[in-house]
Amino acid sequence: MYLIVGLGNPGREYVDTRHNMGFAAADAICAKYGIALNKEKFRSIWGEGRIGGEKVLVVKPQTYMNLSGESVRELCDWFKLEPEVVIVIYDDISLPVGKLRIREKGSAGGHNGIKNIIYQLKSEVFPRIKIGVGAPTHPDYDMKDFVLGKFSEEEKKTMIETVIKVADAVEEMILHGAKSAMNQYNG
Fold first, then answer.
1. 19 is catalytic
2. CB under 8 Å to 93, separation ≥6 — which residues?
């Protein structure tokens, strides 16, 4: 079984923000594979389904970004899952808008949601998909305002295409491993 975790913040005010690309990708995965996010437990909204014949749980933690690991740990403990089967999807300001970067493991790279997951799982060894959301063009721009800001109309179109690619990349990771997905989707 795989745990597919899209990171974001709950609440209407965060919908369509840069920091909620993990939630948007989780929604795209659910739409593609017919998975209903119809369960509320472990401080998450989640659903069960199958991708490529493998059982998956698609999860949107409701703990807010910086405490995402608490929800992930509860799910891993309950379902007895190792970090290697946890696929985390999240925004990355170091990548241009719409670019994907898949990794098998790694540090938090300054992302507080990932930092908390690493802390809670006591491991950096879990696959992840970073979704490029760009960076502020002005050096004095407040980073919090930027990541909680919305995309331009042009960027929205790119991001719709991107979350569809993420759904395909997740299937590739499940069927053939992260290395295969990295070869196909890292831009």
1. yes
2. 18, 133, 134, 135, 143, 146, 147
